[in-house]
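=== Discrete structure encoding ===
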Amino acid sequence: MESSNKRIAKNTIFLYVRMLLSTCISLYTSRVILNTLGVDDFGIYNVVGGVVAMFSFLNASMSSATSRFLSFEIGREDFVRLHKVFSSAFTVHLLIALCVFVLGETIGLWFLQHKLVLPADRMFAANVIYQVTILMGMLNVIQVPSVALIMSNERMNVYAFVEILNVCLKLLVVFLLLIIPADKLIVYGLLQLLVAILVFMIYVIYSRRTWRECRFKLFWNKKFLKPIFSFSGWDLYGNFSTLVRTQGVSILLNIFFGTVLNAASGIATQVQGAVGAFAGNVLMAVRPQIIKNYAISDYTRMCFLIEKTSIFTTILLLLFTIPLLVETEYVLSLWLGIVPAYTVVLCRYVLLFNLFANLSSVIVTGIHATGRIKRPSIINGTLYLLVLPFSYVAYHWGQEPQIAFAFNVIAVFCGMLFNMWTLHLYVPNFRFVAYFRGVLVKGMLIAFVTYSSSYWLILQLERGFIRLVVITLFSSFCLLLFTYFFVLSNEEKAKVKLNINI
């Protein structure tokens, strides 16, 4: 168990290094690319790429299904079935890639040439970029089984290295773009394709050479494909519901309040993604272990991982969430300069949403391990879809813009409780009441006391950067103190004392 814990810790560190480096490089490259291509060409690249992305929607659910079934067979050490699952997934992803190509070259191409509003003198460049993005989309689909195999075997160092190499190559693309004397948009697209091909080759060759039992082979067997399709189908409903809810709320904001609220919503979404990524990395590292322990019927270890991941990712989120909640206005003005109306309140709602969504994601990982996702997918997906009619009625009655985000928080909280109960029914050792008290109630009490103390402190200090630093340090100290006394077990406290030589 200790080696598993160390592996989780190492993998989490690798993923954090990847995230930090990727974020820093991406922030720089985005600005340079915008300046180099210009607003029009940059917009063309994004809108054309978005058309292809629509046809790759199924890929997200298939990726989740592939990862789950590979981790399950690795946990059972059934390498014959592992080879068949991998070959089945590989065959399916080839078919998805073919579908992306066919849809892209028919409906997508028609949409590009007849529906999108593009400058007439940039149509040739737009068509080149479109073909490039179709090829990139196909490569991304085909490499999914290889990436899933790497993740299921917990080789996060390899994944982190390849993704860091990916963003570094994209940084090189930016510099080459500045010196190559040709159509910048076309050059940018072709260079991006070269990067995608290289990353594809690394993933495929590495997985082929490292796990010989997973050599590529076309394989079609209903016995293996039926559970994969069933899993991905129900997961697709949940993912689709989330997409419809997000885009639907954006459209409602536009209809009732105009583009200013879309800007505020976009900023809130960026904040949500940036903060949520910190907890997401931990879950990514733990996920294969949860599935593998279920596969070998070690439910005690599985539930231990779920509970510990839940409480520690909650504390991790609170380290960022509480300073942002009490200093939202100042942080946004520091970041943006001019803050669109309602941005502050929307950001606060998405930060609350993140806390419950994180717990729900950990629980859902446990449910995914069982493979029985039909019921939770229907309930959660329907809850998310209900946000739209409730929001429409509320806006029609003259409610404030943030009401949709409040409904989001209510929906994810209800979904989280339902997921907890579902896991209680599916996994023998998971106890709903114990989790509710030990994770949810404890986490909410820690959050409430820390937030209240931090809010009292800001009232005593003058607004400014110094106050932000003081609040961040104070809330972090409170959270670490509460974690030590109320979250850590006696054994974990002893290890902490040993490490800091108390």
Remarks:
- The mean pLDDT is 86.
- DSSP finds 17 helices and no strands in the chain.
